[in-house]
Specification:
Two copies of one chain form a homodimer. Chain A is elongated and about 90 Å long. In chain A, helix 2 crosses helix 3, helix 6 packs parallel to helix 7 and helix 8 packs parallel to helix 9. Chain A is α/β, with parallel strands linked by helices. Chain A has twelve helices and twelve strands. In chain A, strand 6, helix 9 and strand 7 form a beta-alpha-beta unit. Chains A and B meet through helix 4, helix 5, strand 2, helix 6 and helix 10 of A and helix 4, helix 5, strand 2, helix 6 and helix 10 of B. Strand 2 of chain A pairs antiparallel with strand 2 of chain B, so a sheet runs across the interface. The structure holds a DNA duplex (16 and 16 nucleotides).
Amino acid sequence: MINLKQLAKHLNLSQATVSRALNNYSTVNSATKARVIEAANALGYRANTSARQLATGKTGAFGIVLPAADNLLMDPHFVDFLAGLTSALAVNDLDLVLSASDGIATYRRLATTRKVDALVLSAPKLDDPRIRELLAMNFPFIVHGRTDRKPDYAYFDIDNYKAFKDATRLLMDLGHQEIALLNGTQDSVFAIDRYRGYCDVFGQRGLVVNPELVFADAMTEENGYRIISQLIDANKLPTAILCSSALLTLGANRRFRDAGIVVGRDVSIVSHDDGLSSLKTENFSVPLTVTRSPIRIAGQEIGKMLIEQSRGASISELQKVVQAELVVRASTGAAPRKK
Amino acid sequence: MINLKQLAKHLNLSQATVSRALNNYSTVNSATKARVIEAANALGYRANTSARQLATGKTGAFGIVLPAADNLLMDPHFVDFLAGLTSALAVNDLDLVLSASDGIATYRRLATTRKVDALVLSAPKLDDPRIRELLAMNFPFIVHGRTDRKPDYAYFDIDNYKAFKDATRLLMDLGHQEIALLNGTQDSVFAIDRYRGYCDVFGQRGLVVNPELVFADAMTEENGYRIISQLIDANKLPTAILCSSALLTLGANRRFRDAGIVVGRDVSIVSHDDGLSSLKTENFSVPLTVTRSPIRIAGQEIGKMLIEQSRGASISELQKVVQAELVVRASTGAAPRKK
DNA sequence: TTGTAAGCGTTATCAT
DNA sequence: ATGATAACGCTTACAA
């Protein structure tokens, strides 16, 4: 394990020159630069991270906190997100520091101990205290999602409002009027946006939303099953359902199959699809019609934004919204005639 | 953002004393210790991580690399594992550094740049090159799994052999003789161990394993569906199946439901269950009989071992094997009579 | 183009 | 019990 001093001595150069050569400064002679790099490789020199961090004030790492240990429900979306994020960072040899959530204290700790250069913040709530605090501390961060339409911080989000508007329209164009919405809890901004999209189409067509068909809860397989059970038992199953997560849809499908209800014929489904690699909506027994936006891409984009941010990009350059793609497959069909 | 020098000046003490007070050295007067701590809190002093790392040579972080970006299949097990791991580390304010995998180079980089104090290594293969290299570098690591029965490095594993022996016995005791094994690929040691457990029970009972009923592939929902389809189409469906993953079982179940085959009556299933929070085997339409061993606990245990290791525990203290629990639920029943 | 030397903010050693 | 002061290994003015 050789250090800069030793490498410099070995080369009969000063530490400064060697350092500059390794960091590709333009002022250093290209011949010596080559010589330095070769020697460094030959001797297996690797800069000590802590020393570099101390000297530059940059850590070369970004922080993220593992969401929701509170309800013990680990979100399967998170791995895909992490995969995208780390792959974008790896391009520049940047790392990701992962911490278990102890609430807002974790964010504070990560920011104040200068373990990381910036944070990524997932699943923002309305008026999220983490955002307020980070903003007050003037610590850089990027939000996956938004707290309102046009916030004054860096974020990456999908157009949830538009996605669910499109999905609702599609169903209505197929003749559906009774459409259940299986959504996430209403404290998450994305769920609110989706609900608004859904409602607005009803409004535009002079129809009224039936609140008995709107569900806001944790987006688990179990809940999908439970909600459809409830609807069937109460004899209130609508002709179509709109799901905020493929997991919910999975559970709903299981219930439909148990009841002998054929998806795409007896009932139509549009689901949001985060493109999870472990849950492919195209491989469902009845391939799903979805609003699709891979969460892995979101991770990747946020990784790139993190890099841009550390290079000094302004807030306005760090605000992105992408559209979800409406993919029509076999789970949607014309509304059955009223019996 | 105050530093040690400023804090020391503010207290009319030397940096050394303040540092010692903050690090709870016994040699420092308890009155001044209290005074220092109070001032530190009042002024919001936080030690600079890089500086401390440089001085101590310890990073206070452990590394892990996100598996298998190669096949784009993100393992949902990984989040649960991470949750356990980070929660154990958080107790001591330790962090986890996550890197995207660029093959073995990633491990090398993490080790040589001294970004972390130790690595955790997942999904070991037979004669894994990562292990060989880390061992040669003398860099500390803990393996989740094993490369052989009694290796000479730190590891945490479950007794896969015993688990699948138990499962196979259970099925045979119920009268099953044709038992399919839906396993992971045979380059993973856990899959080999499970296969051995399965085979040995056949051997002990004087029966012979039918190789047409043994499948070794990626443990995805799709593969579970596909394999059962294949069996049904070839009219070779056995009376029982043994699955290495709840995901495989999920897919198998979907195929059974499509075919109107009733699990627990027409066919028996025993699945391994890693206790994923997003996939609860007790909530399947037919609650599953499983060999259970929560992967979250594995993460937690490895987190504790990482801490022990950095405190100087010996290799022999860092080798743990736990048993999976056989939980009998409704997916297993007596073998149907031969038609 | 290269070298000298001063940080960066801690902890550790050695006196006192 | 406390204080000087020297590491730790790098980057970066400033000089040459």
